[in-house]
Design a protein that fits this description.
This protein is α/β, with parallel strands linked by helices and 224 residues long. The chain has nine helices and four strands.
Length: 224
């Protein structure tokens, strides 16, 4: 299965991702490893740019130091991360390839918080999404794109309450509550204009985790 979960912070992407992993391992009679292990590549949003497992010796310091990079160098690093996950080892037909946000993260947050990728600039990330999606459709035509979202007031409520199964994931977040409406709109627009054919939305505003994974399975099974 090739899969991208995209969306705003506190929408529930990582929580849903863990449930997807449980379901997938059960479906394929393989062993599920609980968090902090995660089957998704979820290291594309600054400052969380280090893979969860295997990098414990430098993860904390690296995710602090990444904020010291100038926008030009940060842009290079983020482009490397995106391009790297287009390589043959990830896109092979018999390989699972699961990402959270991937190149969509830069398109939303780069112009807003990182200092690069604005319209008309070098490495315009909005234009970059078009290029990356064309590559995905060429190399991974069976990719599934899922927009995980919630109502603006619900996201704000979760932020204020610190409501998350992964509170450490939100430490050092660059997202500002006054930008949540805009961020949700940007992700929605990227999803709406996406050329990826297999796509659907999951709204977690009032859904339980059980509701959300059931909705995911019912939507993805016919695709698979």
């Amino acid at each position: 299965m090739k899969l991208i979960l995209m969306g705003c912070e506190y929408a529930g992407k990582r929580t849903l991702g863990v449930e997807i992993s449980k379901w997938w391992h059960k479906r394929n009679n393989t062993e599920f490893t609980p968090p902090p292990s995660i089957d998704f590549h979820d290291h594309f949003t600054v400052p969380w740019v280090v893979h969860a497992i295997g990098h414990e010796h430098h993860k904390e310091v690296s995710e602090k130091k990444i904020l010291d990079l100038n926008p030009g160098l940060l842009e290079h690093f983020q482009r490397y991360q995106t391009d790297y996950h287009m390589q043959d080892g990830f896109v092979a037909k018999d390989a699972d390839h699961w990402n959270i946000d991937w190149y969509y993260s830069d398109a939303v947050f780069g112009p807003l918080y990182y200092g690069f990728g604005r319209p008309g600039e070098y490495a315009d990330r909005w234009e970059g999404v078009k290029h990356y999606e064309e590559t995905v459709m060429e190399k991974m035509p069976d990719m599934v794109l899922v927009l995980v979202k919630a109502a603006p007031e619900k996201i704000k409520e979760r932020v204020i309450a610190g409501e998350s199964l992964f509170p450490e994931r939100h430490e050092g977040s660059l997202m500002k509550t006054e930008d949540i409406d805009y961020i949700l709109d940007r992700f929605q627009t990227l999803y709406d204009q996406s050329i990826i054919k297999n796509k659907f939305e999951i709204d977690t505003s009032s859904a339980t985790v059980k509701d959300s994974i059931s909705e995911f399975v019912s939507n993805v099974e016919p695709i698979l």
